[in-house]
Amino acid sequence: MPDVTLQRDTRRRLDALTFGLFTVALGTNIPTPLLLVYRQTLDLSDADLTAVFGCYAIGLIAALTVSGGLSDRFGRRSLVLPFAVLAGVVSLLFLPAVENLPLLYLGRLLQGVVSGVVFSVANAWLQELAGPGGQQSAATRGAVSTSLGFAVAPAMSGVLAQYGPAPTTLPYLVHVAVLVVGIGALLTVPETVHVRRPGRLMELGLPPEARRPFWAVLAPTASGVFAFPTVAATLLPLLVVADGVGVAYAGLIAGLSLAASAVAARVGRRADRGAGPLGMVFGALGLAIGVAAIVAGSEPLLLPASVLMGAGGGLCLTAGLTLTARLAPPQARGAMNSAFYAFAYAGFGTPLFLAWLGSAIGTVLAMSAFVAVPVALAAWLSWELRRAP
């Protein structure tokens, strides 16, 4: 009977932390379909908009360099709770940003900081709550809850902006309301770090035996996690979707991509070692269809492109988190999750890179050349995973 009670308590805490992680993730993509609104209100170019979106990655990577080490030293709860509160403050900061470009940049930068801390630390927290036998399940929980938050946000934001009052206000207020419930759930989750680990704060946290698989497999896999969905959710709608179609369709494209990521993250466990290479193949196919959509000016082609790219990102995410859970020793779990997410979130800079490259050599040529990157990575990962023990 005590074992049943313990399992029930563990499940309840895992559910609470999973929901709290979802509510934070929900805020990160609310601005995505609103880029079309900001383009009009602030008279921005496509390059300006991708720069606004890309600065999210700067905040992410800056936070990831220290968040894992800090959580290993001071605990998971002490970082996740205050930064979850900050997520709500940032959503409120976006309200006046519709007429203020510096605030728009600041909001996206701070969203990156919040995400860098919460997503990496909460995943380490989930793995510790689940215990040694539940780490793969915890990795899947983290991947699915994050991807679902990413997916619901743009669809909700696009519909509210298109058909509701106050298009640049209501979506953020809805997020704050949901987040309050999520923070309440997080307050019920106990701390899992009881021995404070001294040491450097800025480190990758890689044990010697994990270094080669990290650099040979985990880092390349991480590169596809958000590169594919962000190209589908931001750059392609800006290049193909006409203003007359509206924000709701852009939100649908983004939501579809990120929903496919959530589904793929859930089923990716069955692919085991093949999840990473398969994710790269899906991403390459989606990018190729995206190029066709740009050439033809076809908005319907964005639908299969976004699904394939989202699925590619989700497969890479679940493959990476599962391998991280296997490789990370308890005393470095937070730092190693941060290392994985640092490489994953660098993908948020991909739309900015492609926009810059497109301005230099042409959008179609830049996108076509980029298709070769995931193709090469799929071949590399397949070879590396076959020879690995």
Secondary-structure topology with pairs:
Blueprint: H1 2-28, H2 31-41, H3 46-74, H4 77-93, H5 101-130, H6 135-163, H7 170-186, H8 211-240, H9 247-267, H10 275-296, H11 302-327, H12 333-345, H13 350-361, H14 363-370, H15 372-387
Helix pairs in contact: 1-5, 1-6, 1-7, 2-6, 2-9, 3-5, 3-12, 3-13, 4-5, 4-7, 5-6, 5-12, 6-7, 6-9, 6-11, 8-9, 8-10, 8-11, 8-12, 8-13, 8-15, 9-11, 10-11, 10-14, 10-15, 11-12, 13-14
How much of the sequence is in beta strands? under 5%
- CATH architectural type: Up-down Bundle
For the biggest sheet, the summary is:
none
- Determine Rg (CA atoms, Å): 20 Å
Number of E strands: 0
Task: Characterise the protein shown here.
58% of the residues are buried. The chain has helices at 2-28, 31-41, 46-74, 77-93, 101-130, 135-163, 170-186, 211-240, 247-267, 275-296, 302-327, 333-345, 350-361, 363-370, 372-387. It has 389 residues and is mainly alpha-helical. The protein has 15 helices and no strands. 79% of the residues lie in helices and 0% in strands. The protein has one domain (2-189, 210-387): MFS general substrate transporter like domains (Growth Hormone, Chain: A). The model has no long low-confidence stretch (mean pLDDT 85). The longest helix is centred in the first third of the chain and has 30 residues, at 101-130.
Provide tags for this entry.
single chain, 389 residues, mainly alpha, Growth Hormone, Chain: A, 15 helices, 0% strand, globular
